[in-house]
Amino acid sequence: MNKFVFSVCLFLFSLAGFAQGSTLVEAEEDSTISVIAYFCKNDSLVYDYWHVKNRIREADTITTVNVTTRFLVTVTDSTSEGYKMVLVPQSIERGETTNSNEALKMEDLLTMPLGVNCRFSTDELGVIQHIDNWMEIRDSLKANYKKIFDEVYAQNAGLDSILPRQRMESTFLLRCSSESGILQIYAPLVMLFNVHGGSFAMKKDHLETKNELGYPTHIDIEAFYTVPKEDTDNEGDYAIVAETTTDMKGDDLMDMVGGAVGMMVNDSIAGKLNETLKSDEFAKMEVQGLNHELYTFFYNGWPKMMVSEKKVGIDGKDALIEAAGLEWVSLHWNEYAEEEDDGEKQDI
After folding, report:
1. CATH number of 3-334: 3.90.1150, 3.90.1200, 2.30.230, 1.10.287?
2. Looking at CB atoms within 10 Å, which of 1, 14, 16, 78 has the fewest?
3. How many Å apart are CA 90 and CA 26, to the nearest integer?
4. Inter-residue contact 45 to 314 (CB < 8 Å)
5. In whole angstroms, how far apart are CA 242 and each of 54, 94, 295, 299, 318?
6. pLDDT-flagged residues of the chain (< 70)
7. How many CB atoms lie within 10 A of CB 216?
8. Cα separation of 288 and 140, whole Å?
9. Helices 250-262 and 3-17, interaxial angle, to 10°?
10. Is the pTM for the entire model greater than 0.90?
């Protein structure tokens, strides 16, 4: 198969599942654990969020993404209707990858920006309702996009003939032109609060359903209370684990691949792409996504550690392994400070 089409298929399939966040489905059982935010004003937690993407080509493993972001989340107001909160990016560290400097700069287009805080609101359960300053973030992203495109296209004279800058820039600007688009750029924020408001059965449960794109999806899921092992663990802490499998055919991907790539590449390449998409080889291609998810919470609904690992296989062979996760680094809870004599668990 054309290597370019192959790469695009991996990218789009990962977006179709992994990037949309959790695929967990709520339970209808009496014995459940509900993910509810019991936060206090001035609660603050620092988290590390990491994202790694490996592409497997024959016997070689190519690391295309390897980044860790540290950020602070603070509750600025708490009412009966919900919470006002702010996410403050603190640092971004990049590990070793096989990408060029230009590719790393392009990767910056897909990550939350430093230098601007994200103010958001949730309902009383912790479900995100709004990005309150999304227009401010949009303006910051637009300025950053222009700077990155200026650098990348200046250093690669022939790039515009393959990926016309105007089309590329329009595609990325479209992503940040709405509140929902801005939210998806803040992947750590989506992961933090994606399962709040849900209830999950305290037993192994198997579900046959369809994902957001309508493809058959098989889910095994279980929620349970965890046993305290560390000083920072508490009675009432809990976890949710799930394994999700989604199957697709090449002809299911045809419109998705053609439409997405056609927005960015020149007409000549788009034409060759459409020829490949119409081939029997592509139509018969079998694509499977396997997603392992682990979500652990403190008893009051603050996330402790979360991991989501997605494997994309084509014709029975692993082709992409993408993983993301976050873990708390330090915390301060007002509730702890009022009720406990020992402050070790209040500020860690």
Report:
1. 2.30.230
2. 1
3. 34
4. no
5. 22, 29, 9, 20, 20
6. 1-30, 99-110, 212-213, 249-284, 315-318, 335-348
7. 12
8. 37
9. 100
10. no
